Write the structure tokens for this entry.
Amino acid sequence: MKPLKNVLSFGKFRVSYGASGSIAADPLLQYNSFISNTNIGAGINNIYANKIDVKTYGGVGALLADFNKIANKSLSWSKSKEVDYGIDLEFFNHRIYVTGDIYSRYTSGSVFVSELPSQVGYNSIRSNLVDMISNGWEFGVTGYLFPRTSPFQWDMTLNFSKNSTSIAKLGNGGRDYITSNYAFVVGQPAFQYYTYEYLGPLQSIDDLPVNPMTGERMKYYGADAGLAINQQGKIFPGMPMFTDVNGDYLIDGADYGNDKKIIQGKSPEPKIQGGFQTNIKYKNLNLRVQSSFAFGNYIFNTSLQQVLSQYDDNTAFFTKALYDLSGSINFWEKPGDNAYYPMRYISYSDGGSARSFRASSMFLEKGDYWSVDDITLSYNIPQKWSEHIGFTRVNVFSTVRNAYMWKASNVPDPRMVTKTGYYNGQGYPINRSLVVGLNVQL
Amino acid sequence: MKKNIVILLLVAMIVSSCKKSFLSPSQVDLVYNEVYWKTSQDAERALIGTYSLYRGLMVNAQMYNRGDVTTGLINRGWNGGSDPNFYLPGDYSNINGTRKSWGAIESYADWSGFYKVIAQANLVITHIQSMDDKLFAKGQKEELLGEAYFLRALTYYNIATIWGNAPLMIESIESSSQVITANNELVNTPRSTDIQIMDNVLADVTKAVNGLAFGIPGSSKWGIRANKGSALALSGYANLWMAFLKQRDGQTNASYITNAVTALQDVVEHGNYSLASYASADLVRQMYKGRSSEAVFELNISTEQNESYRVDQGGIQYLTCKLLPIDGDVSKDRASSINFVPASKKALIYPEYPDDARADLFWTAWESNYDEPFSDVSPTATDRNMVTWMTKFANFSPDPSRQWNEYVAYFADCNIPVFRYTDVKLLFAEAFIKNNQPGNALSIINEIRTRAGLETYSGSDPMTEVLQQRTSELIGEGKLFFDYVRNNYFPVSSVMTPDRYAQKGYYWPVSSNILTTNKMLTQTPFWNGKTVW
């Protein structure tokens, strides 16, 4: 045992099991409630434009069922059960620490909304609809390069983790649960993009498949593009191609939802993520660097999509300021251009266009990043000096936050994405700051 | 001294409110089934909610588009008006054909709004029934229930005449277990047949007739709340529609026609209604404003009661009224944005013009001989003052808080007609003819004709004359298309080819949203493959 003890100074093996629950946000879901809705009865589409708030009929106040909520008395908590196997090890007299975890979590009955058939009158119901299973592991190692008693200390910590969540069970007979931008399918990863699959700009008319039924080339469905020259829906070189999912030789010309699909292999979940931090200390001087990273995920560049979508809307194009994208975005301009983005095509009259810059996989970008989040240099003024001026302890420090970031995507900050992968930074990245400070203890 | 009293009052108020809110908090801002339905006012407010929902459904010219624009008698303006697909015959020659008739108007193929009224009515019926009789004044419970049955019957009558086969929901939804199983499976309901739905309408109508009393002209509920007269009128309609369905399916229908005659006779004799005078345009305007002696059932729209809408945002006025701009500058009117009657269709509406007074009472510029819509940029020279537009619903008042650049900012001020007495009388004539009593029909026809300034009827086809009078009288009131279907009579024959009629193409398709959320439901057969969705 002696040689082993020289190497391994501490070891622990952990097994844990836990169950937890989370309650749905609205405690009133068990009641069928009544509302005196605003503008019932005479509200023409836009109640703000309509300018009269109708709450009566023939002068008598009205109450009606709140069709957005149906009493679900059987709604219960969503429960999760988790098994975790972990190991903690220390080597070489507390010089190297290793911790590892592997876990599996089964969450049953997550509350999601499903649409009700219209004859019911009520719009939708919240129910314990989705079961998910999350598997993952975490691994961390910390090393001290010098003996723990030395005046010079240098330690490093590296963490890795990976989590993948997939759908174990769905309500309504396992029917796919599809929303406007994500889709749950039993057995598939939980978070995947559900959108149009962008194939690049059309290079030549000859590249368009021909519908064997009609002899017509593939065109856009329901788009006004080409209407002015009596070629409604015709796809010209430079216009975007999307996968024709339903095989009708018509590419959805706007956001009608006909040709959306789950984009395979571009998950918003990172293949690996983690952090790296290090401390260097010599006597009173201390340098700390913290960084984080994620690799292998795809994020949706919402901000670019919003900027470019102005080209799809002639009102916006002529009335709003357009961003200077020269240099950063490579648009198709003439046949032969090896451009990723399609041509800018301004619609002409009723606002119709090819809707080139609708939300689609065009805006999926690699979410890889490595960011140096925090660098702090601090110095403890020797006690004899500080006592000389009447303080117990004086510490001078300087911190740089968000010092540096390497990223594969064009979003200002790839960390600011929702669970489903959509960038939500709304234009304001976390700012870089330099703080210089003085800590004084009396 | 005065000051002290005020302070004392304030202190008293604070003390009393403290007592209530701090020591025994109770959930007060949520009203739900378990705590509602305690007084007759609760019952009435929920019933009023049903009226509101129905009005909300009808307010945006729903029945005008379905019942009038579909007849082909009306064209769309250059810059606006109703969707031309309402009256265009379907062209289904290739999959990309842009003309799909109703198959291109998905929002009108969606019945969700109708089923919201049904859901509310079901709730009201179930809960009022189970309330203690002692909570109500004498006869009040029966009356409130009768109104609820009337509204449910009316809504199902609409559903059955628009879509034919449709799900029949008559239970109130009290909890999720009625719509979703323990396995999270949605509970679906297939389409019942049009005859099953109409059977249910007739059952509800009978309950309404029994529970309701005839109205009192001039009372606060006159016209805008259902009474026995409204229910009997609906009974007439439902029975005649049922007679049509039975005849179509080769079954006997005599009993339904007799029932229609009986019901309509009752409303004519005891309903306290009388035909309004057509002596001046003003009197006609007053009648359409609402609650007149002809108001069998209308939906209340009143600026005074704060129950109105801006006509430049929607409603029937948005589709039919030229609207004189508030600043008097006629070049800013809506002459190019409204539906109009082209000259070529005018003889179908008033064949005896200029003798027929109604052409000028219900319309402006009936004499106009333009077949084309007015437009400032039209290649055909037209005149903005010669747009033939309907004045029936041109009752409105300026919005006092309008913006400076809103030139046609008016609030609507006329009720939405559902049944009016002229309509009931002509239906009575139709029932008489179908019941082999054409003599009785003739006197009604002549009453209507005389009021319009016409000679008495001398022809030999009273049925066609009744339908002609219905067209002349009721155009714009959401009735005609259904009259034409019931009698297989289409003045503009292109809107309904015999083939389409035989395949029940007078029923609407259902929207994609309905088809995808209810797996047990199938598309209206005629429209399979003929819709854009």
User: Anything to note?
Assistant: Confidence is low (pLDDT under 50) at residues 1-26 of chain B. Chain B touches chain A through 73 residues (CB under 8 Å). Residues 244 and 486 of chain B are 6 Å apart (CA to CA). Chain B has 18 helices and five strands.
